[in-house]
Amino acid sequence: MTRPGVRAGVSWPGRRIRAVRDGTDGSRDLRPGRGRATFVLFPCPLRPERRGVLMRITVFGASGRAGRAFLHAAARAGHECAAVVRDPERLAGAPAARVVRGEPFDEGEVRAALAGADAAVIAFALRGGRRNVPLYSRGTRTVVDAMRTVRVPRLLVLSEAAYGPHTAGPLNRTVSALYRATARPVIRQREEQDAIIAASGLDWTIVRPVILVEGPAHGHRRAPFTPHHARAPRTTYADLAHVLLDALEDPSTYRRDLYP
After folding, report:
1. Which of 42, 55, 115, 218 is deepest in the core (most CB within 10 A)?
2. H/E segment holding residue 154
3. Quick one: which of 105, 118, 137 has its CA closest to 50?
4. How far is 203 from 197, CA to CA, in rounded Å?
5. Residues 231 and 180: beta-carbon distance below 8 Å
């Protein structure tokens, strides 16, 4: 007697692995010694009390334009976000299930913000005269250390593509050289951030847009794994949010850079 495989084990937040056995006649059962074992991924709620919620995501830098765009896109997709900000009033009206007042340099506050999360998004942005604040480097280290402590494995990071190996083609390299000449403190932080993430042991993805602009989403597009050689496209914050969401549960993006 054959029957579909129903035994399951959780392999990743928001996903469940179901083991089935393929019979030589095309049927599937769980009997040992018949055919070969395969694994099938299918969506499922993580816990019964989460019915209707796909994933719980903690967003650092949620009050910036990229962070707010992600909150809106994630809410529309059925995810539940905790937004971590220094000033909660800046997020008035944002679709966050929880707004957490916190400093990215305080590991205790960061751990509390990550409680119950399946993934984290770092969308830090240095504004005005704060370029010497170690937000990208020290802030990222604090988040990474807290994620390892509370066992949140999935990390998405918004970075940039205007430095180091992330530029390609004569035009983009020229722009990168000008940027390096005027923003050395920021670039040093970005390079340290990259090293922290690479050594974290987490399932990370770094998204590296070149030019971010306001405007509506133009529709989903696959972000390549290699830098743009020709003139890089402009990416709206709304499209960037969809790139982050698409990568969230895509194992092919683990430990890789994306270039929208």
Report:
1. 55
2. strand 154-158
3. 118
4. 9
5. no
Least Cα distance to 55 among 39, 34, 36, 78 occurs for 78
pTM: 0.75
pLDDT in tens, 74-124: 999 999 999 999 999 989 889 999 999 999 999 999 999 999 999 999 999
Characterize the bridge pairing of strands 211-213 and 234-236. Answer: parallel
Give pLDDT tens digits for 238-259.
999 999 999 998 999 999 999 8
CATH number of 49-258: 3.40.50.720
Q: How far apart are CA 198 and CA 144, in angstroms?
A: 11
The type of residue at 52 is G
The ranges of the chain annotated as CATH 3.40.50.720 are 49-258
Residues 37 and 95: their CA atoms lie apart, in Å, by: 43
Residue given tokens 């390096």 in the structure block: 180
Report how far residue 66's alpha carbon sits from residue 205's, in angstroms, rounded to the nearest whole number. Answer: 16
The amino acid that residue 29 corresponds to is D
